Request: fold
Amino acid sequence: MKNKIATITLTVAAASSLISGIVAAQTPLPTVPPSTAGFSEAGLSRIDQFFEREIADKRVPGAVIAIARDGKLVHYKSYGKLSPDSNEPMPLDAVFGLASMTKIMTSVGALTLTQEGRLPLKSTLTTYYPEFATMKVGVPTGDGQYKAENPKNPIFIHDLFRHTSGLTYGGRGNNPVAAQWPASAQVMFTLSGQQFIDKITQLPLTKHPGTEFEYSFSTDVLGLVIEKVAQQRLNEFLKQRLWQPLGMQSTTFQLNQIDTKRLARPFKTNPLDGKPQAIDIINKQSSFDCGGACALGTVGDYLRFGQMLLNGGSLDGVQILSPQTVRWMTSNHLGPAIKNNVGYVEPHREGYGFGLGVAVRQEVGLAAVPGNVGEYSWNGAYGTAFFADPAEKLVVVVGTAAPGELRKYYREQVQVQVYGALLK
Reply:
């Protein structure tokens, strides 16, 4: 009889543990009614209505939206379908190509090394990759050509964090210098990390380091610097430093580490212009762990990451960064001597500066979206978005498979609607 009771007790305990695990996987943070957190139920329902319209008009297959306030989940919903070629509803644990939202995680990983005294921001990039010592700055001469100049400043690790390195992405800028540079997709599937370094160090810098915000491969290089310092691949480093401690079970650079049946897929043609579109990172493995664009993950995972930052670097008793480091990271690092092009890269971001891996709001007005001074954020080219507002204790993550211009529309509209639903 005692054995039977013990068996029943163990079975109940195991079942309870299993149920708790399932609930934890489905709910990234504790939940509260929206009204308890100062949200209007009717206001949040406008997000539902918005995506219902967009999906009915076949502008996006589906979406997942997560909103947390004061550490509590107030809105966590999926909409539409996982793939336009399937009738499967969009699951909450759908996996998205995170694109440039990878950059924030890479930056946080690098800052854990900085906290340990292993990666000073004023150390030069040539300390880790001497190949950068030979780079020249290309200065357009106005006749379709350019002249090469010696850089006025070295590239510091600080420049990699804030995109003031003089590196660029191919296709940015209508000049003969930018034209030399490859697009991200041209390197992320064909080159090893060292081959990538060898390739770009043969090209001209577009700006003198430390003088201008130029969105770029900087964070990909920062990821490779992490690999040099930590002596391990970026995937394993971030897994140990961030993803496992924070319970981010579905975030990775490796396609074979996730259930590919959960990958959110876009329409094969852009709904706006009918041109072919794709999200390559969900179809083939990147050739190196590119810290600027190549991670995959869920909205729930990223919400936990964002909540950790909003909490001052900790979540559920796990300390990733100190509160002071987070404040430093989420402050504007583009001083008056640096030309600020953040609003050029993200048109709705007029009035933003840039910190260590995140855009940082400097003005209440100017931008095309509401928010408070100190709000920080960045988005992904495949249709994901993230922002956190310390003044409102707010974290928001958006997941869509929309790699065309509509991605900008969704990130803006969700932010407008979230603030429109706040009552206090």
Residues 310 and 390 are 6 Å apart (CA to CA). The longest strand covers residues 72-80.
